[in-house]
């Protein structure tokens, strides 16, 4: 029963948001946004900030200082490449994110095959149903107006394709009698009625980061409090990097501007790509040890 509390809670939050929003409640966006910001600081960024500890765990005896330096250089290199090749940078980030999200979920749920398909459907539903909201943000990442217009032209096809994929996932979950996956599918199915940043936050923090936190507790054998304290200095460092980057690339006078949001996600992506690979290596190492 305990395994259903979080996914049911996420579904209830999404339904309440949709109900309040339809009723014209003015503060519902700010309230949910504040909850997600707390979640981002509590587990969203910290679960990635523990990479140096997962590296130590899977590679005992190796120098952490060299790893941190390599990590920072990788972030800088990714940012430079993304800046020069924005279309390729965004595409690579989306594909890696889909792979990462699907792997974390399926590893948590004990499903052996299809994680890339699930991650693609989940991310595709969130983005494909909000093309008009997404376009101003990715335009600030250097994506051309022509590419943004092309996305608008094919948005109906994207929505149909990802919705069909979600239905196929639902059928698979029913056949497997996998109710936790089914609850996650239901949550993703509500994203067309929730703004893109809030729907992404519900999935990224409530589902993905929670799965990542579970893997860290199991793999490192530590309590949530211990994990959070070990992550704290790296969390502060990540926030400082993102803050400086947003100040330099975004619009410091308007936190909610497309420029600032675009800069935030671009910087989060640059930090996330090394994390995606470290998370994969950690999951593979802990899976082998369990066997």
Task: Give a quick rundown of the structure.
This protein is mainly α.
Layout of helices and strands:
Blueprint: H1 2-22, H2 28-44, H3 46-49, H4 51-58, H5 64-84, H6 86-109, H7 115-128, H8 131-139, H9 145-153, H10 155-176, H11 179-189, H12 196-220, H13 224-249, H14 258-290
Helix pairs in contact: 1-11, 1-12, 2-12, 4-14, 5-6, 5-14, 6-7, 6-12, 6-14, 7-10, 8-9, 8-14, 10-11, 13-14
Outline the structure in words.
The protein has 291 residues and is an all-alpha fold. The chain has one domain (2-290). The chain is built from 14 helices and no strands. Helix 1 packs antiparallel against helix 12 and helix 2 (28-44) packs parallel to helix 12 (196-220). The radius of gyration is 19 Å and the shape is globular. It starts with a helix and ends with a helix. The model has no long low-confidence stretch (mean pLDDT 89).
Q: Using the CA coordinates, give the radius of gyration.
A: 19 Å
Q: Calculate the mean pLDDT score and round it.
A: 89
N-to-C order of helices and strands: HHHHHHHHHHHHHH
Shape: globular
Number of domain units: 1
């Amino acid at each position: 029963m305990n395994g259903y509390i979080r996914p049911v809670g996420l579904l209830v939050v999404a339904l309440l948001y949709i109900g309040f929003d339809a009723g014209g409640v003015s503060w519902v966006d700010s309230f949910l946004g504040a909850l997600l910001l707390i979640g981002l600081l509590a587990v969203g960024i910290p679960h990635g900030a523990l990479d140096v500890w997962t590296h130590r765990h899977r590679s005992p005896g190796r120098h952490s200082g060299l790893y941190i330096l390599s990590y920072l250089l990788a972030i800088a290199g990714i940012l430079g490449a993304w800046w020069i090749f924005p279309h390729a940078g965004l595409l690579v980030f989306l594909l890696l994110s889909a792979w990462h999200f699907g792997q974390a979920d399926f590893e948590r749920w004990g499903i052996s095959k299809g994680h890339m398909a699930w991650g693609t459907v989940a991310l595709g539903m969130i983005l494909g149903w909000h093309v008009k909201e997404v376009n101003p943000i990715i335009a600030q990442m250097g994506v051309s107006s022509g590419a943004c217009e092309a996305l608008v032209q094919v948005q109906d096809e994207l929505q149909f394709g990802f919705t069909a994929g979600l239905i196929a996932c639902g059928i698979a979950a029913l056949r497997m009698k996998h109710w936790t996956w089914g609850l996650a599918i239901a949550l993703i199915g509500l994203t067309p009625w929730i703004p893109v940043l809030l729907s992404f936050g519900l999935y990224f923090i409530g589902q993905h980061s929670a799965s990542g936190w579970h893997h860290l507790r199991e793999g490192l054998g530590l309590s949530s409090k211990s994990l959070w304290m070990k992550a704290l200095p790296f969390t502060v460092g990540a926030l400082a990097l993102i803050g400086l980057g947003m100040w330099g690339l975004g619009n410091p006078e308007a936190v909610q501007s497309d420029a600032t949001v675009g800069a935030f996600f671009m910087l989060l992506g640059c930090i996330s790509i090394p994390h995606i690979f470290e998370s994969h290596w950690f999951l593979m190492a802990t899976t082998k040890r369990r066997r």
